[in-house]
TrEMBL record:
It comes from the Bacteria. Residues 16-191 form the N-acetyltransferase domain. PROSITE patterns: GNAT. Keywords: Acyltransferase, Transferase. This is L-amino acid N-acyltransferase YncA. GO terms for molecular function: acyltransferase activity, transferring groups other than amino-acyl groups. It comes from Geodermatophilus siccatus.
Length: 197
């Protein structure tokens, strides 16, 4: 079994795993998102976004995304340790940027978000989530994965770079209601990821 397989395995005395999210996980996903954004993204996201966070509304949005994904290619996974949801990843088909043409390698998928609650960081949860998304994307015929990261988010950039991802040159600016948020796009070709295993 690959060391980052999404199947349950023992890590010390605690069982850790990645599994598809269930509607009942929505409040935990919203909590992980709120805690992670308020802790790790305080310098990146506008204060009004963080301070005005509606956790119940976010849980409703996640519940809908899990129960009725917009396409069969969309999904949400959760990382679990000691029966607690400690992280999650959402993925789906990639949207082309501006006048971008489809990638010559084949269909592209996108990691919409991948977050691990900071107190559960550095325990392999992020790597297991990314491996599970990669395995599902590959099984669905996806040739390439991409993710948009805030330009200032060096921690996430380092994580994806250590997994073999690289910037692909695309940049976008999001209107957050405050200071615009500049994001850069990272990507990986799944055939190359296979060769690295």
């Amino acid at each position: 079994m690959h060391p980052t397989s999404p199947f349950p395995r023992r890590s010390g005395t605690a069982e850790v795993s990645v599994r598809p999210a269930r509607p009942a996980d929505a409040p935990d996903i919203a909590r992980v998102q709120a805690v992670t954004w308020r802790t790790a993204y305080r310098a990146v996201l506008p204060a009004e976004v963080l301070d005005g966070w509606d956790e119940a509304g976010a849980a409703d949005t996640w519940r809908a995304a899990i129960a009725a994904p917009p396409t069969p290619g969309h999904g949400v996974l959760v990382a679990v340790e000691q029966d607690l949801v400690v992280g999650f990843a959402a993925y789906g088909p990639a949207e082309l940027a501006g006048d971008e043409r489809p990638h010559p390698a084949g269909p592209s998928g996108e990691v919409a978000t991948l977050l691990v609650e900071p107190r559960w960081g550095r325990r392999g949860h992020g790597s297991r989530l990314l491996a599970a998304v990669t395995d599902l994307a590959r099984a669905g015929g996806t040739a390439r994965l991409q993710v948009w990261l805030p330009e200032q988010d060096r921690v996430s950039a380092g994580f994806f770079e250590s997994a073999g991802w690289a910037r692909d040159g695309w940049v976008r600016t999001l209107d957050t209601g405050g200071t615009p948020l500049r994001e850069v796009r990272w990507h990986t070709l799944l055939e190359e990821a296979d060769e690295d295993r």
